[in-house]
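Dear support,

I submitted the protein below through the web form. The confirmation email said the job was done, but the results page showed an empty box. After a refresh the structure appeared. I'm attaching both so you can tell me whether what I see now is the final result or a partial one.
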Amino acid sequence: MNRKEFLKRSGQLCCASALLSLTDETVSAQDKPAETPPLTTPLDKRVEQGQKVIRRLINQLDQNLDKATREKLMEDCGTACFLGAHGPAGPPPTPEQVDKFMEAMKQRFGPDAVQQIDGQTVVFFKYISNPRGLKVADGFCLCPILEDAPKGISPTYCHCSVGYVRQIFERRTGKQATVELTDSVLRGAKTCSFTVRLKG
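What the results page shows now:
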């Protein structure tokens, strides 16, 4: 194909593309074919099945282990989850870094979120939303596996977050932390709240 023929055909293709684009823009919405509703994907099915397995597993923990043992087991899972996401701890934080972290807690949760009680620093911490915009107040669990909080999941599962939150505070403050779960979506609340006590 010579250069002249090539340019001619290229021009025809460009005109055709422009015409198709223009035509598409001028077709009214009622003339366009209805969109096919999204089909359930294999991933959806795997997530659904995973939720069922977790529900059965936690129910078995409730039926076969005492409260302290099953809560510790779930807290250890939360610790492992944090370490899997963030890796081992680096150097301990500086006092300036700790102060900055505590100030961030006050800004996010209010000035009373950090208090001194009986010689300990106490932080009233909450899960609010995840990076994708899902909010606990709308009934979403922020665990990526249980975002839609399927019915029948025991609140024992929430102790996974206790372990996770403990790791957040111990790493960011360099102090030993005890964490109490005070409310959660799986308990029927609109908040996932924790009381964190820092020693030292």
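Response: this is the final, complete result; the empty box was a page-load delay. DSSP finds five helices and four strands in the chain.
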